[in-house]
Every structure is written in C-alpha cells, then in structure tokens.
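Changelog note: in this version the structure field was regenerated for every chain. One regenerated record is shown below for reference.
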Amino acid sequence: MPFADIGSDRVFYAKHGSATVLPPSQPIVFVHGAAGSHVVWGRQVRALGEITRAVALDLPGHGRSSMPGRDSIEDYRKIVLGLLDTLGFERAVIVGHSMGGGIAQSLALEHPDRVAGLALVGTGARLRVLPAILDGVQNDLAHTARLVVEQSYAPSLDAAMRERAVSEFLACPGTVTHGDFTACNQFDVMARLSEIRAPTLVICGSLDRMTPAKYSEFLASNIKNARLALVDDAGHSVMIEKPDAVNQALFDFMRTL
C-alpha cells in the first residue's frame, strides 16, 4: 500500500481509480476526523474511484502513518497540501469529516487555487469540544471512547458495530486524540465563510449530536455556491451509517463540477 513522504512524516493513503476513469474529472481526497483513519471512508473511496481518482489518507499519528500527531488544524492542513503536491494533484475536491471538515475549510481559505470543490461532512465552522471529552482523553480514555461513540452514531446502531467503533477510537494513541480535540477546540472560521469560493456540498445526519444539523445549515447559508444534503436517521458518522446516501450525494456533486 502506498506511502507519501511529506517532510519528516511518512503518510499512508489508500487509493482507487485512475486519471482515465472519467476525464477530465478532478481527483477527490478524503480527510478523516479526530482519532479516525482512512478506513472510515472505505465505501466512499471504492464508489467514487469508479469515476475519478479517489484517495483517503491517514493523518500523522493515525492509522498507518508515522508519529507524531498534531494539535492544530493549520498543521494538519499542511499535511494535506503536501499530499496534493506529492500526488501531483494541482487541484482536488476535498472531503472532510468533523475535524477533517475543519482542515478542508482551512485549505479552501488559505489555498483556494488547490481546491476544486468542498464536501463538508458532519462538521462546522467552529468545533468546540466538551471539557469532559478533552479532560477524559487524558484521564480516562476508555470511558471517553464510549462517550464519544455514543454521541457519534444514531441510537439505532447495533451493539457489534458500536464495539467496533470503540475499538477503532482506542486504536489511536491518547496523545494524538487529545491533540486532535485541541485542534478542533481552537478552530473557528465563522467570520470567514463568505471568503470560500469553491463549490461546496454540506452533508449532515439528521440525528447528529456532535455537530448538529444547525452547524451544517450555518455552513450552507454562509458559503457561496453551497448546498445542504440532510441524511435521515443518521448520526455524526453519516458516511458509515448511510454510505449509499452519502455516495449518491457525492456522485451528484462531482457531476456539477
């Protein structure tokens, strides 16, 4: 599986599709959220790889990428920008979930020439984190993992999938997870959304408790050329809970670019 050397970081990424699938389509790059990895985008990478080049990375400290993690959205943005450079993507559609959505917005604001489109999934223009989560990651990681998972999925999530989600959360080192939530807590571009010019799709689960639908409605109302896709009966991890609905929204969005 491929790695990209970005500065001193060795960054893993999964890929599907090729430049010849649907020319001249833009490549699409998926960015996971706090304590996540590329695996959360498995269904999307396979589906979108049928029409374009689709890539999902592990941010530093996550999944198969090298340590250390980061504690700011800006530092993670530099990694995504470095991956675009390494892969030779002059421009790409950037899809970000939760913290990844903050990274995507930051990239669109600071490097608009590199962003062909944005898809913001279960995220917001400000990502405040409950003190119980920030403190809990340091003091009781196992309990906090269950708290976060409880808030990240619709109540209908089956027990086996819930336990798998807890295990995946705990697979990320606690120091990295704390850095992720610190980065989220400091993120705020509410006053700058009108500067984003990239065509934007905002996706949110109707039952999202981490970044409620009002966050997505604010994004869609304040970003020019943005539209909102609200997915029924899905929580914060909408791309896992309702992959077909998310894939269809992304397919429709890509066709407009």
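Spot check on this record: The chain has one domain: 3-255. The beta strands are 3-6, 9-16, 28-31, 54-57, 92-97, 115-121, 200-205, 226-231.
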